[in-house]
Specification:
This protein has 3 domains: 42-152 and 194-354, Rossmann fold; 154-188, no CATH class; 379-536, IlvD/EDD C-terminal domain-like (Glucose Oxidase, domain 1). Helix content is 34%, strand content 13%. The chain has helices at 19-31, 37-40, 61-74, 97-113, 128-139, 165-175, 181-188, 203-214, 229-244, 252-255, 258-271, 276-286, 294-303, 318-324, 326-333, 350-355, 415-421, 458-461, 522-530, 544-552, and strands spanning 44-49, 78-83, 118-123, 143-147, 154-156, 159-161, 379-384, 387-394, 404-412, 434-437, 469-472, 484-489, 506-510, 515-518. The strands form 3 sheets. An 8-stranded mixed β-sheet has the order 7-8-12-11-10-9-13-14. Strands 2-1-3-4 form a 4-stranded parallel β-sheet, sandwiched between helices. A hairpin with a 2-residue loop joins β7 and β8 (387-394). The structure holds FE2/S2 (inorganic) cluster and magnesium ion. Residues 42-352 form the Dihydroxy-acid/6-phosphogluconate dehydratase N-terminal domain.
């Protein structure tokens, strides 16, 4: 077989012991799709399409797909779309994170099993981009990401609305009795009104910016609104770039390196981006054997300013970020902090990209490095006897008045316990207390949902309390805010120290020292540990994916990936 024949449909032939027969069979079935002999000789760009009727954020993918295909054809290759599972954030139970690894496996195996020479990854909603990058990194075929792009904002009276930070803000007002049931009904209909991902710097937007910074998507594409004509042009350019990656292959392992991962952490910090992104970036890097250390995160955080004034931390929305200059403008501001020799999917380095003319920047949305919004990064990792493996606090979204504080723990043993008691009028809780939620981590029955944003108990919110220190092994939506300590590792369900906290214990948070301490003496903790029983259903009582998940999922500091999906160490 000539080199040309080993491409396109001939790639990875099924082995019947007779190669020519295999090729003949493959071509005859491919011909049934109406391809001419000329077309069958072309290299193939696969397009992993995560369109789904259960994913509102991807509803414009049919139009984007056409543009990607156009670009692939322009580049002289044959575009072939294939479906993978999709993860529509708000429609998945118990939590979308549980299915991220499943989508990554689907993506990886279909890239590997089907004949293609390069792949375009079409994703957008929170877990889809990490899943696709994880899968593509493991398959390691030339790959390029195109994201859905953010939704446009909407309006309610004089207020601009964008999912989902405003969802939470108005829900808080409704809970506090400040707005009526009719008003919240009207707002419900106006929060999310176009195709695209959440309109703020939540997880989807953060991951889009990370994909661009890593060099896995084309420059300038992360922030283009979903419905903007530029998004279709970006899709076309992505298809063309994918076709060009075939002859001089650029693989995910060439692009995702220790240095580009560090650049990605920098942009995450400068964005004041989502806490979930730490988990996802750790999982993506982990597929290529690159560790992401939370102690390194803290070093980077101390020297990376917050520059982007977007909700939930600031005032603006993703469409403003796009018009203000997008990811490129932020990267230029932090250029001295970046590794510029990192290769990107275009074949240029990050440095090459940043040499090009920037265009105008709106500094109301993207601050300059000289006058940052905050001198230090948006995220910080905390360590201490309550979280030996680390915990995450989004300090840019937290109340600084609570940064150095000791308080009494009020413990909820599970999500069910929280739901049952949080609004009880006689709940034993005061304003200065610290709310603790146990058993909401990756191995818990709830699978680490975005439940770390514990509601303020009704009896306190009615008195005007807006924020309290809240600690859990859960995650938090990238669109949420508050003094919230997340991802406590190791988690309660496997007997981490979080499981040993009892109501009345004292807990001390110090953001300055980056510590979170349970002020209970070691003997007492040992006594409690000896009577620990995990409340999680054991793997032996589970089946199917649920069982694989329970057996394989790693802790948050390893990206909640599966142990079996880690690279084989030789
Ligand atoms: Fe898809 Fe928010 S629900 S990005
Ligand atoms: Mg989200």
């Amino acid at each position: 077989m000539s080199e040309d024949e080993a491409r396109g449909f001939a790639r990875g032939l099924t082995n019947y012991g007779d190669k020519d027969f295999s090729l003949y069979l493959r071509n005859s079935f491919a011909s049934s799709m109406g391809y001419s002999r000329e077309v069958l000789k072309k290299p193939i760009v696969g397009i992993a399409n995560s369109f789904s009727g259960f994913n509102n954020c991807h509803r414009h993918f049919p139009e984007m797909l056409e543009a990607v295909k156009r670009g692939v054809l322009l580049g002289g290759a044959l575009p072939i779309e294939f479906p993978t599972i999709s993860l529509g954030e708000v429609f998945l139970n118990p939590t979308s994170l549980k299915f991220r690894n499943l989508m990554s496996m689907d993506t990886e195996e279909m890239i590997r099993a089907q004949p293609m020479d390069a792949v375009v990854l079409m994703g957008g909603c929170d877990k889809t981009v990490p899943a696709q990058l994880m899968g593509a990194a493991s398959a390691n075929l030339p790959a390029i990401q195109i994201v859905a792009g953010p939704m446009m904002t909407s309006r309610y009276g004089e207020e601009r609305l964008g999912a989902c930070t405003d969802c939470r803000r108005f829900w808080g007002k409704y809970r506090a009795g400040e707005i009526s049931g009719d008003a919240i009904g009207d707002i419900e209909g106006r929060l999310a009104t176009t195709a695209g991902t959440c309109a703020v710097m939540g997880t989807a937007s953060t991951m889009a910016c990370i994909a661009e910074t890593l060099g896995m998507s084309l420059p300038g594409t992360a922030a283009i609104p979903a419905v903007h004509a530029d998004r279709l042009r970006a899709a076309e350019a992505t298809g063309l770039a994918a076709a060009r990656m075939i002859d001089k292959p650029i693989r995910p392992s060439d692009v995702i390196t220790e240095k580009s991962v560090e650049n990605a952490l920098r942009i995450l910090l400068a964005l004041g981006g989502s806490t979930n992104a730490i988990i996802h970036l750790t999982a993506i890097a982990g597929r290529l054997g690159i560790p992401v250390s939370l102690r390194r995160l803290n070093q980077l955080s101390d020297e990376t300013p917050v520059l982007v004034n977007l909700k939930p931390v600031g005032a603006n929305y993703m469409e403003d970020f796009f018009f203000a200059g997008g990811v490129g403008a932020v990267l230029r501001e932090i250029k001295p902090l970046l590794h510029l020799d990192c290769l990107t999917v275009t074949g240029d380095t990050l440095g090459d990209r940043l040499r090009e003319d920037a265009g105008p920047v709106d500094h109301k949305v993207i601050a300059s490095a000289e006058q940052p919004l905050e001198p230090e990064g948006g995220l910080v990792a905390l360590f201490g006897n309550l979280a030996p493996g680390g915990a995450i606090l989004k300090r840019s979204a937290a109340d600084k008045g609570l940064f150095e504080k000791e308080g009494r723990a009020v413990v909820f043993e599970s999500l069910a316990d929280l739901a049952k008691r949080i609004d009880e009028p006689d709940l034993d809780v005061e304003e200065g207390d610290i709310l603790v939620l146990q058993n909401a981590g990756p191995r818990s029955d709830s699978g680490m949902p975005e439940a770390g944003y514990l509601p303020i108990p009704k009896k306190l919110s009615a008195k005007g309390v807006k924020d309290m220190i809240r600690i859990s092994d859960a995650r938090m939506s990238g669109t949420a805010f508050g003094t919230i300590v997340l991802h406590v590792t190791p988690e309660a369900a496997i007997g981490g120290p979080l499981a040993l906290v009892r109501t009345g214990d004292r807990i001390k948070l110090s953001v300055k020292n980056k510590t979170i301490e349970l002020l209970v003496d070691d003997d007492e903790l040992e006594r409690r540990r000896s009577s620990f029983r995990s409340p999680s259903k054991p793997a032996s009582e589970r089946r199917g994916y649920d069982k694989i998940y329970a057996q394989e999922v790693l802790q948050a500091d390893e990206g909640c990936d599966f142990a079996i999906l880690q690279p084989v160490r030789t």
